[in-house]
Amino acid sequence: MRCFLLNYSSSDIKGRYEITFYAVTDTHTFIKIIVDSFRPLFFVPSTIPLEKTNAAAERKTLSLKAMDGTPVDCLYFSTFGSSIECARKLRSEGYPVYESDIHPVDRFLMERFICGSFECNGTIQQTGDLLMSKNPVLRGVDFTPELQVMSIDIETNAATEQIYSIALSGCIDNTVFIVGPQVESRYNYCTDEKELLKQFIQCVKKADPDIFIGWNVIDYDLRVIQSRCAKHGIPFDIGRDRYARIVPSRNSSQMSARIPGRLVMDVPVMLRSYFYTFEEYSLNFVASEMLGKTKNIELTDQDKINEINRQYAEDKEQLAAYNLQ
Prior knowledge:
Layout: E1 2-13, E2 16-25, E3 30-35, E4 41-45, E5 58-65, E6 71-76, H1 80-92, H2 104-111, E7 117-121, E8 124-127, E9 130-134, E10 137-140, E11 149-156, E12 163-170, E13 175-179, E14 188-190, H3 193-207, E15 211-214, H4 217-232, E16 245-248, E17 255-258, E18 263-266, H5 267-273, H6 283-291, H7 301-314, H8 316-324
Parallel strand pairs: 3-9, 11-15, 13-14, 15-18
Antiparallel strand pairs: 1-2, 1-7, 2-3, 4-6, 5-6, 7-10, 8-9, 11-12, 12-13, 16-17
């Protein structure tokens, strides 16, 4: 079975290191792959005393050498946490440690030449539309699927972060959920914010996208949606598995999206990664520079906030149209 990797999670569970891969198959079926047979590892000089590496589940003599010609042994660990602690302790005592900075998931993928697409061979169970496999044999292959993309944009009260509307497009027809009294409209009016959030989540589940995309979609749109879901006691259930969440990144001031089975692509981050530079990274400015187009509201700062609030109060149809642009 050919698959394309979307994302993964990993953790130490009951004394074992476990990786969960989320992927789509060549028939566009979602598959969850659990691997708990792979052990975190790193290398040390063969001369290190055995008692210094007792934390390892196994120490194996190899024919490999470090770049300076030093013979090395491989240390295998049952958990990632124990490997981190052992490497830290060895360094603190002045012993060289090799490749402990390579994350176990990265090592697992590299050893199998998996860059995105892979072949999965093993026992596969099916529950409804979900496929699941435990400890299959994986190897990289050349395969590019057609991924389903959903664009997300929200409009809010800037002061309170109350969501006025959510616009979706891409793998579904252009859709806007907006809070307001029911009227005859192409847009979907919701009685309150709680209903808006519920309808949004139902729409995501029905459309079942592989990718969320948007402008500052992680730091703003998804972060606010998660926050408002929490306020109303609604599960932030927008992944293909449990525990979708937006959390602070470890190495930056930005937020990170952990949504099982769905990639999140933030357009400004993508532009910077491809070395596009602009005087500013507002959506209106970049759209004007790249497409020669701007959104209906061309105001900035407080004037823009005031106009969004005015449209929500006086002309919700106009705000919905703006949200969908």
